[in-house]
Amino acid sequence: MYSIIEQLYFVPSFRKDVISIEDEVFKGKKLEDSVLYQLRESFKAKDSIYKPLGLESFAKACRDIEGKPMKPTDQIDAVEFMNILFESLENEVKATKYEGLVKNSFKGLFSHEILNKCAHNHNFSRDEEFLNINLSVKNLKNIKESLVQFIEEETIEGYSCKTCEKKDDALKRISIKNSPNHLILSLKRFEFDYNIFTNVMILDYFELPSTLNIKPFTQHELSKKDGEVNEESKNSDSELSPSHFEYKLAGIIIYSGPMGSGLYYSIVQNREDESWYKYYQDKVSKFDPKDLPEEAFGISKDSKSLPFKNNCAYVAFYDRIKPEKVKEEKED
Fold it and tell me: For residue 281, what are the contacts with CB-CB under 8 A and spacing of at least 6?
């Protein structure tokens, strides 16, 4: 819980939006049960970089899968908690002027495409909102390799074209259609091992670059390679400047310890002066980003670290280097 909230606090646009929520939103609500109210008060109360967020009241407003109040120290998967939190916050601001509280900072769009090889090349696409991208780690070296795998095309044999009413092969793929100012990447560090019938950690060394260009993984770029820039891809991030696709690493949530009994902690950049800090339980200390490989990338082949002592990055937060004004969504 702490690791997620600390990361969100340091996202300037999100922190500003949460703190700006007016009391009228909470009329008729039990404040002790409002996740949004308690988050706002926690953000307001933080008056020092070296002071961890006070989350006792916030945690009581949160509910676990059994509907019971949580504690700040409760162990819950960081990505699972983040998704629950985002949904709760969006529900609380629905039909108010603050609608889009979470999406304004973190929402992007995937494009799911089926590229038909029929005589008339009838293609199909649909959009899907995302708040984070879940990437593979196993047998991959870095985020770029993982994104390459993420957009990899899959062949569908005997696909039935609804227009031609004939069967032919088709290609299925997913790509980034629109990207947010703050890009969250979750890493698949856990998997179920069918040989021992339990979850295991993937400790592979996996690099998080300090800067990331996502243009090669966008719908428009893939369509250009196909030689078919259709109307759908023209409505994506195609008309934007090169800087739109440039991101920099600004935060990492790390899982530390053995599988099932470890803990999460945060390493995060203060965007105001670009200094880095480590939030480890109730301790806050300055951090040198040069130490990130040893702290967060996993076990290299040459590493002498023992697996149970190793730390692995689990969630990475990237900021667009030149943030852009959020466009208001138009209703169809």
Answer: 2, 263, 265
